[in-house]
Design a protein that fits this description.
By secondary structure, this protein is α+β, with helices and mostly antiparallel strands. It contains 14 helices and seven strands. It folds into three domains: 79 residues; 115 residues, no CATH class; 136 residues, Methyltransferase, Cobalt-precorrin-4 Transmethylase, Domain 2 (2-Layer Sandwich), CATH 3.30.950.
Length: 346
């Protein structure tokens, strides 16, 4: 048996063992544990690898204990497996979080937040870094926004900060449980902020920046409709705008639940993927650059919101050019296309 085949077989056995015995562990905890094992496994002599017995791994409750069992085979310290460009400012931020609750004066709180944001800006995180660091980076950014919001009371802020202290040691399973709780809190906060933003937009009624669609399928014929696609193209051709799915013309919140059940097997992810794929196909994937799709809970119902930004060139839908004029999506007549391009793209 050649060396490459031997190694591949060992990795296969280890992965199969993880699949059978680590279902109850947090996913990221398992990923880093695998990373540490591979680091050890690939830096020791071939003969020594046979001494590592996969059947003993269920005895290792934490990464620290796990690391001690195999550290004699590792050529570099565990900390160096992860980017120092992340850890240095991250440790400073956690230290600032620790004393944040001591500040009561709004001016001092603002200065503290500005200082934390400056530290956050110093984090250098290569794209090749382990996925957990990108998750922590995004959560830090959203936590700073959370702390900056004057509508959030100090008790809620302190509760979030307290959970950050558990993420100091990434070698413990509790760190990943705390991160999951932080992400859940921030997700609820972002949903609430977006819901308030979109409720304000809905209150404006349809105009040159806002379009309402009750469904993406026709209620009578039960066939797919393309009016929402035309609206998205019109905004991308004219100006930034929002296409709401699940809102009636009279501004009432209908939601997409019925359409989800009828056409998308009750799956929100399936519906979002389908709509984005349809838009990307019709725009030759140009819409991927200019549109985002969000799902928001308002009044207990789910709505979808396409945020469309103006494209850098006219986008045609089935050979036709659409634009936004006041509260209407209209087709640009062929004889006016030159004038349209001069006004919006020159």
């Amino acid at each position: 048996m050649d060396l490459n085949h031997y190694l591949a077989n060992k990795f296969k056995i280890f992965n199969e063992y993880l699949e059978r015995h680590w279902q109850d562990q947090p996913l990221k905890y398992k990923e880093i544990q695998t990373l540490l094992f591979f680091q050890a496994y690939t830096t020791i002599d071939l003969m020594a690898r046979t001494d590592i017995n996969c059947s003993h791994y269920s005895e290792y409750p934490t990464l620290s204990y796990y690391y001690q069992r195999i550290e004699k085979y590792i050529k570099i310290p565990a900390k160096e497996l992860f980017p120092a460009s992340f850890h240095r400012p991250y440790t400073q931020i956690l230290n600032e979080f620790k004393y944040f609750s001591f500040y009561q004066d709004p001016l001092h709180i603002q200065k503290k937040i500005d200082h934390i944001y400056d530290l956050f800006q110093k984090i250098a995180l290569p794209n090749s870094s382990h996925g957990i660091y990108h998750e922590i980076y995004a959560s830090l950014q959203h936590s700073i926004e959370f702390l900056h919001d004057p509508n959030i009371n100090i008790q809620q802020k302190n509760k979030l900060l307290y959970r950050w202290q558990d993420i100091d040691n990434l070698e413990s399973a509790s760190a990943y449980r705390s991160l999951a709780k932080i992400q859940h809190t921030l997700s609820q906060y972002q949903q609430q902020s977006l819901a308030e933003k979109y409720q304000r937009l809905i209150a404006q009624n349809e105009n040159n920046r806002i379009e309402f669609k009750q469904r993406t399928t026709d209620l009578l014929s039960n066939k797919k409709s393309d009016t929402w696609i035309k609206a998205c193209f019109a905004f991308m051709n004219t100006r930034k705008g929002y296409v709401f799915i699940g809102i009636a013309d009279d501004q009432s919140i209908i939601g997409i639940e019925q359409e989800l059940h009828e056409h998308f097997q009750g799956s929100l992810d399936l519906m979002k993927r389908g709509l984005l794929d349809k838009l990307a196909h019709e725009s030759q994937k140009r819409s991927n650059i200019y549109t985002t799709l969000e799902d928001i809970q308002i009044e207990g119902k789910t709505i979808l919101v396409f945020q469309c930004n103006k494209a850098d060139r006219p986008l045609y839908y089935k050979g036709e050019l659409y634009m936004r004029n006041n509260a209407q999506t209209i087709r640009v007549p062929p004889e006016l296309i030159a004038c349209f391009q001069q006004e919006y793209y020159c």
